[in-house]
Write a structure and sequence with these properties.
alpha+beta; about 30% helix; 4 helices; globular; Aminopeptidase
Length: about 170
């Protein structure tokens, strides 16, 4: 659970946030490797992806005071891999996609990934969208548990860069 005495804010990322975001992602990539995961071990995500997220207004940061401690991308209605799901989504209308959820090493285990996904829900609602779609690697146990705890429903598999990923949807 996150420290309720702490005040966390969520905002669109700025280009000046790239270095702290990249540091967080590099740690997350290494953490996935140390856990024996195949996720994020193929050069993705990288600085170019993060820069593109920010330039498109799709990159978001979680802040503790003014310090960047988390990152995610929120993309509205644009994930071509989701068109070819092996099974089917709960809904067929507008949706937001959440990708690249990562937290600073010093903030792990405080429930902040759930807090980020709560902010994603607020962004979706502000856009008039009532569906969040996401995916993760079959061996990302932490994220699979978070999706389950937050009411995401397993919908099947999608494919990214040649490998299957578990796909989830939450209807708001």
């Amino acid at each position: 659970m996150f420290d309720r005495n702490m005040t966390y804010t969520f905002r669109k990322a700025e280009l000046s946030d790239i270095m702290p975001i990249w540091d967080i992602l590099q740690s997350a990539i290494q953490r996935r490797k140390n856990d024996g995961s195949e996720q994020w071990q193929d050069g993705y995500p990288n600085k170019e992806i993060i820069t593109t997220d920010i330039e498109r207004g799709e990159g978001f940061v979680l802040l503790d005071d003014e310090m960047v401690i988390g990152y995610t991308a929120i993309i509205a209605n644009n994930e071509p891999a989701y068109d070819d799901i092996k099974s089917e989504w709960l809904t067929s209308g507008d949706y937001v996609v959440v990708h690249r959820v990562a937290l600073s090493e010093n903030y792990l285990g405080k429930g902040l990934a759930k807090k980020i996904l709560g902010f994603v829900e607020e962004v979706a609602i502000s856009l008039g969208i009532h569906s969040i779609k996401a995916d993760t690697n079959f061996d990302n146990i932490a994220m699979l548990n978070i999706f389950e705890k937050l009411g995401y429903v397993y919908c099947g598999e999608v494919f990214f860069r040649g490998s299957a990923r578990k796909a989830f949807e939450k209807v708001l």
